[in-house]
Amino acid sequence: QLSDKFDAVFKKLRGQGRLTEAHVTEALREVRLVLLEADVNFKVVKDFVAAVQQRAVGSDVLKSLTPAQQVIKIVRDELGRLMGEGEDNALDLAASPPVAIMLCGLQGAGKTTSCGKLALRLRKDKRQPLLVPADVYRPAAIEQLKTLGRQLDIPVFDSAADADPVDICRQAQDYARNHGFDTLILDTAGRLHIDDTLMDELVRIRMALSPREILFVADAMTGQDVVNVVEQFDARLDLSGVILTKLDGDARGGAALSVRAVTGKPIKFVGLGEKMDALEVFHADRMAQRILGMGDVLSLIEKAEAAIDKDEAARMEKKMRQDGFTLETFRDQLQMVKKMGSMESLLKMIPGVGQAMKKAGGMQLPDKELKKIEAIIGSMTPLERQNHKLINGSRRLRIAKGSGTRIQDVNQLLKRFTEAQKMMKKMQQLGPKGLKGLMGR
Ligand code: GDP
Ligand code: MG
């Protein structure tokens, strides 16, 4: 799966001190393969990778982010931008009624289903929709729309079975005008493949009714192929937007990215199931998240940015370089972690960690434990914090009393700390780069 691959790519970057050109290039080489494998159009991938490369190399690495997080953030931002983040996706129905919305696309994409979903949504918005069956080639298609209409209690225009689709649409328009319907939803015919007869018919409907919205219905499961199809529809019909269906399955998301990037037309809705209420407004940021599939990386990044004062981080780094890793720096770090929210919620946001925690049956270091550690260190004298070796038996007893803990708790903390210190020493032998990476984490 795409998300696992990204995870693997970024694991390599985790813990590195700086975002160098080499890091970015290596990560992006794999990002590129991953996207291609997810059925994203190759031209789209090329542009995307170039954009990320340009932004990543030479950009300031935030002290609060690891290089991995930094690259994730840029990749995520660019994915969002590519899918039209921040654009207005709302339907444009600002015209004198009845306004027509035309749905088109290949057979089985979900046109008829989406017509029903759209009608339900519009009625909730206090509009009066009329469903129009313009797919006359399969009797079952008209019947399908009628069934949906009955189910939703939304009228379906009653046409003669052998009428021309363009005539049906015109008649439906007159009918709507005379019966107080303000919105026409046109369910047009599809084919397994594009052919001229179908296209000509759709163009004639467009000329007859001038629909305010012409939405291409794309099946998210079809991947790469959809790009050619949507381009041809757009060339003849000048689409106003896209409905991406069947995202409730394990579609890889490549279609969304490609369709939006190739046509430049906004994705307005996504279909998330067969039921009539399974239609949602498209959110570029959520789609980027889906494609990345990396836990709630973004909120982790936001939290880190908000909580960690850059000067504070610099001060701590300096202190650590001077004094080494002491109980004092240890406490500073704990406080920083606390500022960022509970340890547990923080760890859960890191990709993979949430699942690992579930498997392990919870965290070893809950907030209660953190408070205890803080209390113990707080009961030490500054000298003891600088040099833990001073802390003999009687001092331990005093610290335990002062912090309202047991002497075993003090012993355990000192043991943990000594282990951490040993690890730190090893890291420090890696030089300033290794230290910085550690701080970043
Ligand atoms: P049309 O030929 O384009 O009109 O496609 P239909 O509306 O008849 O849909 C074809 C099939 O896809 C039907 O079985 C629908 O229930 C199903 N379908 C449509 N949209 C979705 C969706 O968003 N999710 C899922 N899981 N199925 C969908
Ligand atoms: Mg249909």
TrEMBL record:
<dbReference type="GO" id="GO:0003924">
    <property type="term" value="F:GTPase activity"/>
</dbReference>
<comment type="similarity">
    <text>Belongs to the GTP-binding SRP family. SRP54 subfamily.</text>
</comment>
<feature type="binding site">
    <location>
        <begin position="245"/>
        <end position="248"/>
    </location>
    <ligand>
        <name>GTP</name>
    </ligand>
</feature>
<dbReference type="InterPro" id="IPR036891">
    <property type="entry name" value="Signal_recog_part_SRP54_M_sf"/>
</dbReference>
<keyword id="KW-0378">Hydrolase</keyword>
<keyword id="KW-0687">Ribonucleoprotein</keyword>
<protein>
    <recommendedName>
        <fullName>Signal recognition particle protein</fullName>
        <ecNumber>3.6.5.4</ecNumber>
    </recommendedName>
</protein>
<dbReference type="InterPro" id="IPR004125">
    <property type="entry name" value="Signal_recog_particle_SRP54_M"/>
</dbReference>
<dbReference type="GO" id="GO:0008312">
    <property type="term" value="F:7S RNA binding"/>
</dbReference>
<dbReference type="GO" id="GO:0006614">
    <property type="term" value="P:SRP-dependent cotranslational protein targeting to membrane"/>
</dbReference>
<dbReference type="InterPro" id="IPR022941">
    <property type="entry name" value="SRP54"/>
</dbReference>
<dbReference type="GO" id="GO:0005525">
    <property type="term" value="F:GTP binding"/>
</dbReference>
<dbReference type="Pfam" id="PF00448">
    <property type="entry name" value="SRP54"/>
</dbReference>
<dbReference type="InterPro" id="IPR027417">
    <property type="entry name" value="P-loop_NTPase"/>
</dbReference>
<dbReference type="Pfam" id="PF02881">
    <property type="entry name" value="SRP54_N"/>
</dbReference>
<keyword id="KW-0963">Cytoplasm</keyword>
<dbReference type="InterPro" id="IPR013822">
    <property type="entry name" value="Signal_recog_particl_SRP54_hlx"/>
</dbReference>
<keyword id="KW-0733">Signal recognition particle</keyword>
<dbReference type="Pfam" id="PF02978">
    <property type="entry name" value="SRP_SPB"/>
</dbReference>
<dbReference type="GO" id="GO:0048500">
    <property type="term" value="C:signal recognition particle"/>
</dbReference>
<comment type="subunit">
    <text>Part of the signal recognition particle protein translocation system, which is composed of SRP and FtsY.</text>
</comment>
<keyword id="KW-0342">GTP-binding</keyword>
<dbReference type="InterPro" id="IPR042101">
    <property type="entry name" value="SRP54_N_sf"/>
</dbReference>
<feature type="domain" description="SRP54-type proteins GTP-binding">
    <location>
        <begin position="266"/>
        <end position="279"/>
    </location>
</feature>
<dbReference type="InterPro" id="IPR004780">
    <property type="entry name" value="SRP"/>
</dbReference>
<feature type="binding site">
    <location>
        <begin position="105"/>
        <end position="112"/>
    </location>
    <ligand>
        <name>GTP</name>
    </ligand>
</feature>
<keyword id="KW-0694">RNA-binding</keyword>
<keyword id="KW-0547">Nucleotide-binding</keyword>
<feature type="binding site">
    <location>
        <begin position="187"/>
        <end position="191"/>
    </location>
    <ligand>
        <name>GTP</name>
    </ligand>
</feature>
<comment type="function">
    <text>Involved in targeting and insertion of nascent membrane proteins into the cytoplasmic membrane. Binds to the hydrophobic signal sequence of the ribosome-nascent chain (RNC) as it emerges from the ribosomes. The SRP-RNC complex is then targeted to the cytoplasmic membrane where it interacts with the SRP receptor FtsY.</text>
</comment>
<dbReference type="InterPro" id="IPR003593">
    <property type="entry name" value="AAA+_ATPase"/>
</dbReference>
<dbReference type="InterPro" id="IPR000897">
    <property type="entry name" value="SRP54_GTPase_dom"/>
</dbReference>
